[in-house]
Amino acid sequence: MAIAVGAPAWVDLATNELSATRDFYTGLFGWHWIQRPDYNIALKEHKPVAGLLPPETDAPTAWTLYLECGSARRAVERIRALGGKVLVPPTETPADEMFLVAEDPTGAVVGFWEAPPNGTFGRDHAGMLCWAELHTRDGSAADPFYADLLGYRQEQIGEPGESFDYTVWYVDDQPTLGRFETSLTLQEEVPAHWQLYFQVNPDRNTDEATAKAVELGGEVLREPTDSPHGRVALLRDVVGATFFIIDTAQRTGE
Question: Could you tell me if 14 and 55 are in contact, meaning their C-beta atoms sit under 8 angstroms apart?
Fold first, then answer.
């Protein structure tokens, strides 16, 4: 079954310490690896879930989210027309996939993916990506850019301009991504960015996974807290990339 347009299609991380990064995520999520000279592919339950690659520049280490776009070459035209910038032009992978990297009108870096009809990406299960949200100071610019580009139906939660301004983006009537307006909370030096959430394994809840991350050399940026969607914690890995972990079985409140 093809990956739906607008859905997450891949995530990867550029790191100059491939071995240490592999060891960290193997210990935390139980990932297994296909190791190649220029790209490492993480597997969970025999499904590809993430990639690691050497960095090409001195850019800050961060996870990159790729969204299925249907056609990378057509996406380039739309990205530019809608006020975005193309940072990496359409590039073909050895697996007959095409990707590009862009900057949205609010300054967040995001990838776009053109998967073949049989392309697979493991998500929404233990040790896999289960949510992603855009943290931006300008939700009014971000929402129409992504909606026009990828056809999301967007539902407003909270009040625009208030302390909690959030939109949920739907693909085929399924909540798929979120946009968080952070003008009141994001530090001035931190650019707009996508934040990824990975589901913990069933044998290790959020608190235990947080402790394991520290044992593996990571840092805790936000201690485990309860939410209506699960118990979450914000972590930093051994090379400085941040991400959330979440146990969706531990839900509290509305």
Answer: yes
Report how far residue 41's alpha carbon sits from residue 38's, in angstroms, rounded to the nearest whole number: 10
**pLDDT value at residue 56:** 77
Grouping H, G, I as helix, E, B as strand and the rest as coil, residue 150 is helix
- In single-letter form, the type of residue at position 76 comes to V
User: Cβ(163)–Cβ(209) under 8 Å?
Assistant: no
Any residues with CB less than 8 A from the CB of 1 and at least 6 apart, and which?
none
Please return the burial class of 217, using the count of CB atoms within 10 Å of its CB with bins 0-12, 13-18 and 19+.
middle
For residues 44 and 224, the answer to whether their CB atoms sit within 8 Å is no
DSSP state of 182: -
Residue % of the chain over a pLDDT of 90: 79
If one compares 253 and 98, the residue with the highest pLDDT of the two is 98
Position 189 confidence tier, pLDDT thresholds 50, 70, 90: confident
The pLDDT tens digits of the residues spanning 36-47 come to 888 999 999 999
Residue 134 near residue 181 (C-beta atoms within 8 A): no
- Using DSSP's 3-state secondary structure scheme, residue 234 falls into strand
- Tell me the three state secondary structure of residue 186: coil
CA-angle at 189, arms to 183 and 190, nearest 5°: 65
Q: What is the pTM of this model?
A: 0.94
Q: How many Å is the Cα radius of gyration of the chain?
A: 17
Cα separation, 223 vs 233, whole angstroms: 5
3-state secondary structure of 241: coil
Query: Between these two residues, 34 and 36, which has the higher pLDDT value?
Result: 34
